[in-house]
């Protein structure tokens, strides 16, 4: 039997999540680099989940991993407008959504910490979810075939080494 992921579905249907995705899509309409809409979040969710399964880490649960990945960039639109770090904004915006969608305080804490850490790729003190999100955020980018490679600050020779 498939797991319904009820809380994640509530999250995806939440009016504020939809509003944040619309704002991001509008502000990234002309962007030549990677975009940060639903498809990116879903890619990060799938990769983070697979990564943790391969490590034998099942303590977080699929819904927690997917919720964190789908929410990790929801503050991008604020960063575009004010310059505030989108990881911090995303964590702040995620809090009421997680509560309204039925995530426990423990799950919410793990998700918020993971979201805040998703940009700290090389830190040794990342949470398990933060590590998975940071890795998946990179792996979800199609840098190998991107036409904007030469202009992108994210692209490096190491990105070519990612095995899909």
From TrEMBL:
Which CDD domains does the record associate with it? HDc
Protein name as it appears in the record: Putative domain HDIG-containing protein
Question: This protein's superkingdom?
Answer: Bacteria
* SUPFAM superfamilies hit by this protein: HD-domain/PDEase-like (SSF109604)
**UniProt cross-references to InterPro entries, sorted A to Z:** HD/PDEase_dom, HD_domain, HDIG_dom
> Which positions fall inside the HD domain?
37-142
